[in-house]
Amino acid sequence: MTKGLSLFAKRRRRNRTALKARAGTRPRLSIHRSGKHIYAQVIDDVQGRTIASASTLSGHDGATSNAAAAAEVGKRVAEAAKAAGVTQVVFDRGGFLFHGRVKALAEAAREAGLEF
């Protein structure tokens, strides 16, 4: 079934399968990381809509591809989610490894009040 998939695609499939098994009705904090930017959104899969989002494309100060910028995105997405009434999420890192910018975003979101 996974023949021909990249390591990234295998990690993403494994992560999403585990999330669906334990998420229940909690929204998911999904992230995407590119070479220059990082994006985060809180998604309600039951209703199929985005509750809150943030990225380094808007509202950033200076650099966009470092851990400090990712932490700022984590803080902003957590504040937007709390304003929408969401405090508990599951963290969907996709196929990205949990270190560097991904870890900085997750820790900042936790510090800003999201529980996962």
TrEMBL record:
Q: What does this protein do?
A: This is one of the proteins that bind and probably mediate the attachment of the 5S RNA into the large ribosomal subunit, where it forms part of the central protuberance.
Q: Name one Pfam family in it.
A: Ribosomal_L18p
Q: Which CDD domains match?
A: Ribosomal_L18_L5e
The yes or no answer to whether the keyword Cell division is present is no
Q: Which GO terms describe its cellular component?
A: cytosolic large ribosomal subunit
Note the subunit structure. Part of the 50S ribosomal subunit; part of the 5S rRNA/L5/L18/L25 subcomplex. Contacts the 5S and 23S rRNAs.
Name of protein: Large ribosomal subunit protein uL18
Family in the record: Belongs to the universal ribosomal protein uL18 family.
The alphabetized UniProt keywords are: Ribonucleoprotein, Ribosomal protein, RNA-binding, rRNA-binding
Tell me the gene name. Answer: rplR
Q: Does the keyword Cytoplasm apply?
A: no
